[in-house]
Design goal:
By secondary structure, the chain is an all-alpha fold. The protein has 5 helices and no strands.
């Protein structure tokens, strides 16, 4: 299935859900005063969506894969920052579990998309190599 809009990418939609949830908890009084953590986690969660979008519009699957890897790393960064928020008692264990679960699901979907695109590119390369060998083969000879 061809995806014609970045909004149709499941990992982007999950990243958006995670961003909404992170912004909701970072608007609470406890975390508002920790400007560094608040700013960093908001930047990282936004980076998930932004990198998926930018990669989608990159013009090639290898470029898309590169940006998906950035999104994957940003997701991991959010997960790490959630531990800081939990340890500082800015968020409850329930909030942590909810946010961490969304982040884990998002990361899994990004990873699956990367794997799919890598497989697609490898298959395309193998098909192209096979077609080239067949073209270069002399008529009436066996390629093996």
């Amino acid at each position: 299935m061809k995806i014609d809009r970045f909004e149709n990418i499941e990992s982007w939609r999950l990243g958006r859900e995670l961003a909404k949830s992170v912004y909701a908890v970072t608007s609470k009084e406890k975390i508002l005063k920790d400007y560094g953590l608040k700013d960093q986690i908001q930047r990282a969660v936004g980076s998930i969506m932004h990198n998926i979008t930018e990669g989608f519009d990159g013009g090639s699957n290898p470029e898309f894969i590169r940006f998906l890897r950035y999104a994957h790393r940003s997701d991991t960064e959010v997960q790490s920052q959630l531990y800081i928020a939990l340890d500082q008692k800015y968020i409850s264990k329930t909030e942590f579990n909810n946010l961490y679960g969304i982040a884990r699901k998002t990361k899994s979907k990004i990873g699956s998309l990367i794997k799919y695109l890598l497989t697609y590119e490898a298959d395309k390369k193998n098909t192209s190599s096979s077609e080239q060998r067949t073209k270069n083969q002399k008529p009436g000879t066996n390629p093996s």
